[in-house]
Each structure stands twice: as C-alpha cells, then as structure tokens.
Amino acid sequence: MKKIRIIIASTFILSLALSTSLSAQNGRTTGQNQNYLSTGMPILLISPDAIASGMGDAGAASLPDSYSAHWNNAKFAFIDGNLGFSTTYTPWLRHLGVGDMNLLYLGGYYRINNRSTAAASLTYFSLGEIQSTDVEGNPLGIMNPNEFAFDLTYAMKLNDELSLGATGRFIQSDLTNGQILSDGSSYVTTKPARSLAADIGLYWQHPIDKEQDFALGAFISNLGAKLSYSDDDTKKEFLPTNLRVGGRYTNRLDEYNEISVLLDLNKLLVPTPPTTIGDETYSNYYRNMTEYYQTGVMRGVIQSFYDAPGGMTEELHEVQISAGAEYWYKQTLAARAGYFFEHNTKGGRQYATFGFGLRFNVMQFDLAYLVPTTSFSSNPLTNTVRISLTVNLKPSRPTPVINS
Q1: What are the pLDDT tens digits along the chain (404 aa)?
Q2: Cα 318 to Cα 31: distance, rounded to the nearest angstrom
Q3: Where are the domains of the chain?
Q4: CB burial string 330-352: b at 16+ within 10 A, e below
Q5: How does DSSP assign 338-393, residue by residue?
Q6: Which end of the chain is more exposed for a tag (fewer CB within 10 A), N or C?
Q7: What is the DSSP code (8-state) at residue 400?
C-alpha cells in the first residue's frame, strides 16, 4: 500500500510538470501579446529560503519552519520548536557576471505558549554600485540602491487543527539615492519609497492517521499603501499584493522515510494594465493608464479578478503554479524537486528546481538550485546555488524520574 502511495505522488508531480511544459510550448506558438502585471518592489515575492526554493517555490501549506512569514504566517502556530533563527544568502545575476548584487534574509521566531508564536524577519536587497549619468552621459556620482522590509508576526491556534496569522511590515525602496533626474525636458526629484503593509494567513492541518496528514493554506501578503519614488504622486506603484493558496500531503512511510508533495496557486492582487490590443486607440490607452494609476489599493484587489483586457482567459493566465516534493531520510537527509510555471504573456518564468538538506542536532543546512526550462524569459537566479542555515531549538524533554 505504501508503494502505491509513492507512485501516486510521483505521478502527480510528473503530470503537472508535463502539462505546464506543453502549455508553455502552446503559448510560444500562438503569438499572444504580453501584458505583464507591474508592481513596485517585486523583491517581496522572491523566495527567501532554499527549502521552498528547492520545491518549485511552493510553501502555502508546507511543513512549518522559520521561513513561514513569507509563505503563510499562520504556520508559525504549529511550528515544532520553542525558539529558532534562520538566514539565507542569495547571489543575484551571477550567470551574467554581476558580483555585487545579493539578497539577504534574516528571521526568527519565539513560542509564547502552546497556542501562540511571535516572529520577526528582515529582507535586504542590494543592487550594488551603479554609476549615475545625465541624459548627455555626464557622470553624476555613484549610487548604492537598495531595498529592505522588516516585519513582525503573531500566529495563534484557533483549535487543534486551524491557525490564524497576522503580520505588519515596514517597507523601503531606495533606487536613486535621492538624485534629481532629467528626461531632457524636465527634472524630477526622486526619493526613497516607503510604505506599511499587512499580511493575513490561514493554515489547517489534519491528521489522516498516524502515518499521514493533509494541510491547506491561504495567504494574502503585502496589502498596503502604494509606493511613490518622486514628487510626482500621480504615478504611484502598487505593492505586490499577493494571494497564495496551496495544499500538502505528507506520508511517514516508516520510522526512516517521509515524503511530502505540495501544490500552490499564486495570483497578484493588482490591476491588469490596459493594452492597445484590438480596436483600442492610443488616446483611449493613455486615458486608461491615467485611471490605472488612480486606482486605489482595495479597489485594485477587487478588480484584479475581472479587469484583464483579454477576459477570463487572461485572468487565468495570471495564475502561477508551483509544485514540489520533499523526501526525508531519518529526519537527517532531505532531497527536494519542483517546478514553477508562469504563462508566457505574464512573464514566462518556467523553471525546475532541486534542493538538498542536512539536519544535525539543532542545525539545518539547505541548498537550492534553479534550472530554466524555457528561453522565453531569463531568470536572475539561473544556475545559482542558494544557501540557507536554520537553528531550531525544540522543546526539552523532561528528565525521567527513577523510583528508588
């Protein structure tokens, strides 16, 4: 019976990877127009850890760990530990020879009691040194653009199977270091863009029997005020408000072997930009773009489900798919694999991922590697090894009492 379950799980992952690959080929041959969703600070959507990164960026209902603030904050309530810390270093654009861009993540959690947990994390993205010039090519100095987000999380169990999480986040995106920029006809004074955002998550895990359990998760992240990078507040950028839903099935095959399979669906809750497709004139396009920038945050969330110019077909193209699997041997060695699919008209990111984990006492080391499966869209993490370190202090076991 256990062998049958393994075959079913493997078939599920392979079938999804095959179907998404065929969809990718179909998108390239139909010549569809691209209409990307645009947001400020997209770094908030990048996987911060090598665990989920090895499973196709699936994590809404993955096993709770110290990176749960990014994937589903409600999972912290069920984390198996009293105190934990984590950090990940991610090189950026290394396959293009860029040596000074990187993403750093630091996080930690503390169990308050049996039903609630608090957590905090910091995400920092450095774009390295950039030589700034005017429109005539004259140097204006060296810039050191960077972005960061700091958040605090509280998660609590609503009952023995369901939990709720809430996060508050401060965000800063400084891309120009306050320089005055010109397009040849006018000048614009730039500034760091700052915002406050919130996340809310639900997590449900249900034991099927002593060997198996099933979990579901739903997570809305980065719901907050739009970003303004200049004194011109008429063109503020949306935060990457995001909806992630997913499931997990875990089977402890025996005392040595454990396997989990995961599936996530992901959608940005921001308006779809207008296009000049079909009979729409450029005058209508610019008028629609003005309305686009004037759209409020909550209105943008609601209309993100129905405003695509291509109708429901285009709305479905905005859904990203992540699938992955994880295998543990004696809770010491882990192997991971996954696949991520995004439609060609919405960015075209399609890649396979692989990962490896090693757990020793309270420490865990994880590696992840990304391999693009299409030349349609490049990826900044192509052929890059990501490294994560986690320290997880579990509850101490009581000393047995020996009766004399």
Answers
A1: 433 333 333 333 333 333 333 333 333 333 456 788 888 898 999 999 999 999 999 999 999 999 999 999 999 999 999 999 999 988 877 666 666 788 899 999 999 999 999 999 999 998 877 766 665 666 666 778 899 999 999 999 999 999 999 999 999 998 877 776 665 566 777 888 999 999 999 999 999 998 999 999 999 999 999 998 887 777 788 999 999 999 999 999 999 999 999 999 999 999 988 775 554 566 666 667 777 788 889 998 999 999 888 889 999 999 999 999 999 999 999 999 999 999 988 888 899 999 999 999 899 999 999 998 887 666 777 777 889 999 998 764 444 444 43
A2: 17
A3: 2-393
A4: eeeebebbbbbbbbbbbbbbbbb
A5: EEEE--GGGT--EEEEEEEEEEETTEEEEEEEEEES-SSS--TTTT-EEEEEEEEE
A6: C
A7: P
pTM: 0.83
Residue range 2-393 forms a domain whose CATH class is mainly beta
Q: What token pair was written down for 35?
A: 């209409």
Let me know: does 319 contact 304? Beta carbons within 8 Å: no
Rounded distance, CA 138 to CA 243, Å? 44
